[in-house]
Structure formats: structure tokens, C-alpha cells
Amino acid sequence: xxxxxxxxxxxxxxxxxxxxxxxxxxxxxxxxxxxxxxxxxxxxxxxxxxxxxxxxxxxxxxxxxxxxxxxxxxxxxxxxxxxxxxxxxxxxxxxxxxxxxxxxxxxxxxxxxxxxxxxxxxxxxxxxxxxxxxxxxxxxxxxxxxxxxxxxxxxxxxxxxxxxxxxxxxxxxxxxxxxxxxxxxxxxxxxxxxxxxxxxxxxxxxxxxxxxxxxxxxxxxxxxxxxxxxxxxxxxxxxxxxxx
Length: 244
Description:
alpha/beta, six-stranded mixed beta sheet, single chain, 7 helices, 11 strands, five-stranded mixed beta sheet
């Protein structure tokens, strides 16, 4: 068994795997990490290995906690990845984006693939059919868009994601929902269409906290999997141990 841990900007996500099967998933705040990690290992006595990637602060504390119970593999820029990194500033590329692209490369090795991670920010990462990673884009996620309108205007309320009833809002709240949700949907569709235009057939993987919310509204054929980063970490762990 293996514990995969993703330290994000706001939450920690973890999952216990047995081979490729996800047995149980956990989401918790960084302040609860000690209790939660202890509980996970007590619930799975045979769990002896863990793998971690991080884009958020405080990951060293999480690593120390994991080391109490397991052998820890940390995925970083020096790790082995199943793609050729063509990013002009590879040292600035987020580990989460690299892990997601690695998972896509392993799952669809002979296809062009676009991974869209809809979380705090929305990231787009493109890898071609020869497994050359090119880069992508970063934009504000749903909640950041709502918060920006509220924080940087005098009268707009703070709303939370909600599927708009219509493209044309007849109230301020409806207009905000349409602008945020439909705006992001149009953005995603636009990126997908442009990659398809340039590269032909493209496999699209949608993941992140807002993946399921957005997937039902997208017209393009996509693979929606909110656990894709954790599953990719599980697969990357095998590659690291083959090279160690």
C-alpha cells in the first residue's frame, strides 16, 4: 500500500492506494495534519510508504509527520518524469503541473493531451503525442473570480459557485454567476478548441476541486477525474523507485 499526499494552497489531499486501486481519500486543513495523518496510518497498519508533492507552504512539517510512519518519496524538480520538459523556465514550473502532466503522459503515451486543473487557479498543461511538455496557461479559478469582484468593488456581494439559469442575468447576482461560470466555461472551451485546431486530436483531462461542477456544462469530450493528481502521484512513485 502507498499513501499519496498533495499539499495544496488551501488544503491537503491524500489517498491510500493498493497498486492502482484508490482505497480511501482524505481532505483536511494544514492545522489538522498531525491528527489526520496519525489516524490514516492507524487505520492502515500495513502502510509503510508515502509519496508527496507540494505547491503550498508548510510541506516540511507534513514530510516530518509522514517520516514518523513511513518511507517518504518527495516529488520535486529533480525527480524522474516521463516527458521531455520544453518549458523555458523549468525551475519555476509548479510541481503539481508536472505531476499532472506525468500522469497524462503515462496514461495516454501516444496522444496529445491537455490537462486542465480547476482549483484555486485554473492551470492548462499541454504535452504532445511525442511526450514533449510545452507549457500552458494559468488563470483565476471560480472562487478567486467571485472574491475579486467582491473585494475590488464597492457593492458587489460575495457569492459562491452556482450554475447560472441563463447566459443573460436579469439580476446582479445572476449576472455575476453568468460572468464567472460561463466566462470560465467559454475560456476552457476556447483553449480546447485552439489546441485541437493546432494539433488535431487532443485528449482532455479535467481535474481539481471544481472539475465535477464544470464537467457537466462542457460540450467537449473530456475525462473528468477529480483524483487525477493523487493517481498520478501513485504512478510516479513507481517510476522513482525504478530509478533509485
